[in-house]
Amino acid sequence: MVPLSFAPWSAYLPVAIAQLQFWRVNYWRKQPRASHLGLFALIWFIVIFGFFTIAATKLPSYTIPLLPAAAVLVALFWRDCMYRFKYGSQNQSQNQPKINRGILFSHIGSIGFALLLAVASLLSPRWLKGDKDLPQLQAAIQQLGIPTLAASIWLGLAIASLILLLRRQGRWIWSAQLVSFVALLLMVLLPTVALVDAQRQLPLRNIAHTILQVRQPGERLMMVGYSKPSLVFYTQTPFTFIAEHDKVLPTLQKLKRNRKRRSVLLVVRARKLKDTQLTSNQYQLLSQSGVFN
């Protein structure tokens, strides 16, 4: 997830980390605190990355806290590249050629990564096909031409970077990446987020609104199939999550025997309602939004 979430600068993370030479402990102990920004960013990056790698759940959003640290590392890398170009080789150390090779490989890796993302953008609608929880997303994304637009931006970045590299102007590749990132953010990511929200989160907000309107005092809330913490957030009310659909009827019968509840509010995907084995006289359909009842 880190290379994807930090694109298009991901290819420069390894060389940016290596450039710090963090293994030179005695060297860093002698440096003033003001020069430790890169070391601090590296520790920040490793701690977040390591913690969420060990964790059982690995959601894409978990990479967000380490992105500022990655940005600092790569920014320091580009600063040093510009410094070396401006002042020449008079301040270069003996191991500088190795660093230069690392920069070249990073440029090449960045171009290859952009080409790979261009192909992935064109193929992305296929991966959405058959998603029963987002049935209209594929058509909506293709209708707006988002895959083609994203592929064009990534391909343009690869071509611009290659031209700069061949003209020995690799130090300016960061500017092409910045322009591409802004274009992707405004023309691809924001429209895609709006489409996903309309099909994934808006139905849950509608369901939550209905719950807040019709819920009786003390009435229990249940959701079947898989948990949606968003409902807990939108309603500010605890939910009982039931993993298996065939467990719904026994759970309700147990509540009825114990006389703890006269009714419950049940959230279930419409296509899975029959799997709960509830008959039409056992429930009342109060609302339907998206794929949820």
Written overview of the protein:
This protein has 293 residues and is mainly alpha-helical. It folds into 2 domains: 201 residues, no CATH class; 68 residues. The protein contains 11 helices and 3 strands, in the order αααααααααβαβαβ. Strands 2-1-3 form a 3-stranded parallel sheet, with no helix packed on it. Helix 2 packs across helix 5, helix 4 runs antiparallel to helix 5 and helix 8 packs antiparallel against helix 9. The longest helix has 42 residues. The chain starts with a helix and ends in a 26-residue tail after the last strand. The relative contact order is 0.08. About 4% of the residues have low confidence.
The SSE order reads HHHHHHHHHEHEHE
Level of helix content? Answer: 55-70%
Largest sheet: 3 strands, parallel
Low-pLDDT parts are 89-99
With strands numbered from the N-terminus, the spatial order across the biggest sheet is: 2-1-3
Through-space gap between termini = 33 Å
The structure class reads: mainly alpha
Please identify the oligomeric state: single chain
Radius of gyration from the CA trace? 26 Å
Mean pLDDT, nearest integer? 84
Topology, number of strands: 3
Approximate shape: elongated
Instruction: Give the DSSP E fraction (strand runs of 2 or more residues).
Output: under 5%
